[in-house]
Amino acid sequence: MEHFKVFFKIFVVVALCISLLFNYSLLSKLNDLENRVKSISSNQNQVLHSVNSQTSHLSNIINDMRKEQSWISPITISDIDTNMEKGEANVTFEWQIRELKDGSTVVFNYKYGNEEEYNTINAVEKVNGLFQATVPPIEIVLEPEFIVNLIESHRSGNVKNERAIQETKVEQAEYQPSLKYFVSVSHNDMVKSSDINTSIMNRMLPKPYGHIESHINIHDDKYNVFVVSISRSKPEELDPLTIEEVYLKKYKNGRLIGKEQLINGNEGITTGDNIIEFERKQLDQEVDFDKLVIKAIYTDGASFEREVYPKY
After folding, report:
1. Could you tell me if 94 and 131 are in contact, meaning their C-beta atoms sit under 8 angstroms apart?
2. Which residue in 27, 42, 54, 165 is a FRET match for 261, CA 20 to 30 A apart?
3. Which spans are transmembrane here (predicted)?
């Protein structure tokens, strides 16, 4: 019996050793397999990266070749001459034509805003195929771009800010007329034209009155209002025009019930980035109105009004 127990113990020990060796061997093989999978995955990523890099490089080469072989260079804006008294700007376009035949006629074609037909201007050659054309004066938007941000919340936790998004889109859409243009070259009976370009001119023309952002926060029966004035990004283009005074006008049932001048929060502070904040003297007053209007008065005496809150 004792001999059997000893034999059984030896068998168990040997079996455990064999199991450990087998598990170790299996674990080593699994580690090797995992390393191989990682290596293959890494190689695939490197190959994909190399292919993408080469594809991008080839695309750039092809684009460069197309540009070199193109008969016309990109059409660019070379000058903007602004006349603030008339509220107009003359925009000059410039481009290069390669291998222009003698006797060819070069025409700049354009249409602005809602015009249906293209207008034409005979281009002027400055030197060696470099042409320019100046379109008739384009009207500058002589008023600020208003952006309305409205947040209305109640005890239920619901927040109504849909109107802020709608207002922003409407304001931007109103001031985004585009200029479409292309160049055509005619020689005898042959005519060739460039691609049609589109430019949003108000993004390029100076905005003398900048932007006015109004922020209305209504919580239950209390409200706060503050206004941010942002001047144009390039004040060197024209004499600075900034807001001197901002008023908040309250209406109820179509009748003016109050007018409050907002405080200049930047007074005595030099920010250097043409941003001025205006805020109310008294905060968290009760909502006793059904319409709010912002009135802004600028340093040149011009004033603008914008309805920022009709109750809904």
Report:
1. yes
2. 165
3. 6-27
What are residue 285's phi and psi, to 5 degrees?
A: -80, 160
Residue-level length of the chain = 312
pTM of the predicted structure, to 2 decimals: 0.57
| CB proximity list for 95: less than 8 A, separation 6 or greater | 72, 73, 74, 75, 76, 130, 131, 183, 194
Structure tokens, 15: 């079996």
CA angle (55, 60, 66) in 5-degree steps: 125
Q: For each of the chain's 312 residues, which pLDDT tens digit applies?
A: 566 666 666 766 677 777 777 777 777 777 777 777 777 777 777 777 777 777 776 676 666 555 544 788 999 988 888 887 787 888 899 999 988 888 889 999 999 888 889 999 999 999 888 999 999 888 777 788 888 888 877 665 555 554 444 444 445 445 567 889 999 999 888 889 999 999 887 777 777 788 888 888 887 778 888 888 877 544 455 555 788 899 999 999 989 998 989 988 776 444 555 788 888 877 667 778 889 999 999 988 889 999 988 754
> Could you tell me which residues are beta bridge partners of residue 219?
153, 222
> What is the 3-state composition of the chain as percent helix, strand, coil, each rounded to the nearest 5?
30, 40, 30
Residues whose CB is less than 8 angstroms from the CB of residue 48 and which lie 6 or more positions away in sequence, other chains included? none
